[in-house]
Amino acid sequence: MSIKYFLASSLLIMLLIGCDSQKPKVEAIDHQSKTIQCTLNGKPFQMDINQGSLEGNLYIDGKELRFELLKFSNEYQIIIRFDPEVGQLKFNQANNQLFQLRYGQERLEPCTTQVKST
């Protein structure tokens, strides 16, 4: 029984290592200048982030706001002056999902990222 257990455990470990090597590599958000576009409350939402900076500009409803990013383990919290219509915002490390916490409810919106040439 212990040989079967050992073989099964070894196979599982090799399988997990193989899966991890296939995982896409995610670079730091400030590695390149980029524009992240999403929809927020049914309206276009855009963030511009410059290479080497965790600060940027946010555009929504014809307004331009400065923001800062705080990095957590696998997401970025967007720090802006609080607006109840916007709520709290964060997005994932791959820059393809925006999370909005507003009026006690969390919404998830897909995003696209366009790298800017410098």
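(the above was protein one; protein two follows)
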Amino acid sequence: MYRRAFGIFRANYIIALPFIAVNVSVALLFGLLAGGVMMAGESAAISGAPLGLSMGAVLGAAVGITLLSWVLNILAQGMAVGMSSAALRGGASLDNGLEVLGRKLGPLIVAGLLVSLTVGAGLVLLILPGLIAGFLLMFTAIALVLEDLDALEAMRRSYRVVRSNLGDAFVYALLMVVLWLVGGMLGALLAKVPVVGYSLLSPALDGVVSAVITIAGVLFFTEATGTAPASSEG
């Protein structure tokens, strides 16, 4: 499925666009925040004023950017699922992703919140329950978009699909982690490239990895549920 996903991605590069747009936007926002921190520090050093309130504002801004990043990534994933499904039917376009946002904007955000809270609670407790929850719920966004479900139904659907295909689902998840690790290491190297490294190449690579994983997830889900559409990729 990952081999097929790479092949489908080569014919539909646009699937990475939502992820790249989010990555670049968030990187720029954090860059602006870092610049603001430096300016505030220099100003406080010159005037002798305390930096406590400024740092509190910086912390609030960082939390706000992180939450915005979370929401945008959920929406990017939903768009990518819709575009991946279209790619299996013959070809993806940005309109496919925008159509998903028009239909499923609220449910995507709710599902992302519920999954994040569930996994986060498990990680805080004993770590392993969080990993198990993330594994069982990894197809939530895919089920929500492809089967037009609400958030809770999509979570239950993901759970059932994973439970029914434990071995294959574990291999899918393991390869997903490997791709993220490899992509992360390459991204760290690209981030050191002068000027364009972090601002473009690293977010673009992350977007490609996210797109391939999403396509593979759509392939897995549709074939596991017997709803795979005809594909020109064979």
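Reviewer note on protein two: Residues 59 and 230 are 49 Å apart (CA to CA).
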